[in-house]
Amino acid sequence: GPSAAAAATAVGFAAVGAAVGGAAGRRARRARMLWPCGVTGRAAGGLGRFTFRVSCAALPSIPEVGAEPSTGSSASASTGCEDGSAGMRGLAPDPESLRWNLELAVRQEDFEMASWLQAQIRSSDLERPAIALRGLLSERVRRCVDRGLGVGDGVPVGRAQRLDAVRELQVLATPPGAATSAEDGLHLILRDGVDDEEVVEAAEAALWSCWLPSGDEIIDLCMRKGLKYMGVGDLPKATQAFSEVIAQDPTYAEGWNKRATAFFLAEKFDESIEDCARVLELKPRHFGCLSGLGICHLRKGDERTAARWLRKALEVNPRSGDTKRIVADLEARSAFEVLRPRIKEVLAELRTGRPPRVTATAEQVRVVWDACRVKDLDKFTYYFRVAVECLRGPGVTGIARYYAMKHAGGSVFPLSRITQGSAGFELSPGDSYRYSFMLTLDEELDSAQGGLLLRSGEDIFEAVLERLTLSGLQADSGIREADLARLNKGYQFMGRLEIQVED
Questions:
Q1: Dihedral pair phi/psi, residue 460, rounded to 5°
Q2: What per-residue string of b and e applies to 303-341 under the rule 16 or more CB within 10 Å gives b?
Q3: What are the distances in angstroms from CA 188 to CA 139, 169, 335, 395?
Q4: Residue 429 has pLDDT above 90, yes or no
């Protein structure tokens, strides 16, 4: 396949056409997420995702389900007033908290409390209409997010309703009058809506759509002019138009992002990187800019930094297939750069019989392995088990593993693989990963050693597999294949590899 740099270039150029339409746009749409086009927020709504911001003094306590009702109204009991509403007016309860508590009261079937809360909400809305509007908007966004994630009022929601919810969030997140919480909701669906690819794609498209309008007709006109120039390849005029946009509104992130795109197409990568930094100051989760920043560093030849920014883009938009492929290619190349000299070193140690030079593994992980012979009348078959555990730190990701084997006759040979797809794993502190494999050969093995390459953040290190002595394992005392299921319990079996030596 094409190199990562070539693929990234194609993606970066195609993405510009997506913004302006035409033939270039049609070619670009499948890779649009990689250039230019951010949210940590509480998971609002839905069963089990309540976040209460309630002042105990301001709101009446909600009785436990099944509890005996107190004498008089629940409002009077909690406020110490004959009329609970008087106490609430004096303490100015948070309207959003009132609505949260109303929903909880209804779910607990405490209808007396629900009726009282409804009265308080009406009273609060009349006294403070601006705050009431914000509360209603917040409630509308929360319910849209719930439906977008597939849960509405605690029951499953169909795809059509989920897509409608995404479109509604797009409208609410689009300037003028954009609601930040609506954009947060789209990001939440983009990241967590993994059960329905169509919904996730709709959330991604909605984010692109709500980022482009500025809310100012003059700025939007200038943006369209810049996009038109960029679409026909007139990059100097496009850059000038986007610079005018930035001068009119430096807080408009897409103005910086589009100029970064124009700089990238003009191969002014340093200038593009500077503009990307301004975009991320305004929208830290702009996955298009994060991808574009990675591609800029890739075009400059800095693969390590490129991979770091592309991984950040995947944290925000984990379903981006193009970004995944480029990251996988970069990590494979990085792994082989480390593996080649290391495998040569271990093979030389085995061949000469000298002790391993590297024996310690980072304290962040613990790795062990063992092996046994399998009863085989015709060949030499071995069963290996490997277990790696993350003990502390920010977590680790497996990127490659290798083994060096020595025949009883003295010859040595390596085995290695990049751990992507089904062979890949990510571990948080306290997690472990166990796998096994079988090896069949024409000649008996004398010993084996190896290692796992792991990534923690931006650091790559080796978890050493200590040298195993295999020459003492006898076939007649080995295990039967029928017993392997018992030994393999808790391990992921990776398959059986047969190695034949031709004369």
A1: -110, 130
A2: bebbbbbbbbbbebbebbebbbebbbbbbbebbeebbee
A3: 16, 11, 32, 23
A4: yes
CA distance 110 to 393: 46
List the one residue out of 307, 494, 496 whose CA is nearest residue 397.
307
pLDDT of the residue at 120: 81
Q: Which residues lie across from 76 on neighbouring strands?
A: none
Residue 204 to residue 350: CA distance in whole angstroms: 52
**Structure token digits, residue 132:** 């009431």
pLDDT in tens, 390-425: 998 889 999 999 999 999 999 999 999 988 776 789
CB 90 within 8 A of CB 46: no
> CA-CA distance, 387 to 362, in Å (whole number)?
15
- Type of residue numbered 291: S
Structure token digits, residue 27: 């070619």
Out of 39-48, 183-192, 332-341, 441-450, least confident range: 39-48
What the block records as the tokens of 357 is 């030079």
For residue 76, what is the enclosing H or E element?
helix 74-79
Rounded distance between C-alpha atoms, residue 195 and residue 44, angstroms: 18
Q: At 401, phi and psi to the nearest 5? A: -150, 155
Can you tell me the distance from the alpha carbon of 306 to that of 180, in angstroms, rounded to the nearest whole number?
29
Distance CA 501, CA 503 (A): 7
Answer whether 418's CB lies under 8 Å from 399's CB. yes
Tell me the C-alpha distance between 255 and 26, whole Å. Answer: 23
Please give the C-alpha separations between residue 160 and each of 147, 154, 201, 352, in angstroms, as whole numbers.
10, 17, 14, 67
Residue 402: in which H helix or E strand, if any?
Answer: strand 396-407
CA distances from 272 to 150, 250, 259, 263, 277 (A): 39, 16, 7, 5, 9
Distance CA 44, CA 185 (A): 9
Closest CA to 124 of 147, 96, 104, 146: 96
Q: Reduced to 3 states, what is the DSSP secondary structure of residue 168?
A: helix
Report the distance separating Cα 381 and Cα 402, nearest Å. Answer: 19
pTM above 0.70, yes or no: no
CA Rg value for the chain: 30
CB 271 within 8 A of CB 262: no
453-475 per-position pLDDT tens digit = 998 888 889 999 999 999 877 76
Bridge partners, residue 417, by sequence: 401
User: Which pair of structure tokens corresponds to residue 446?
Assistant: 């004398």
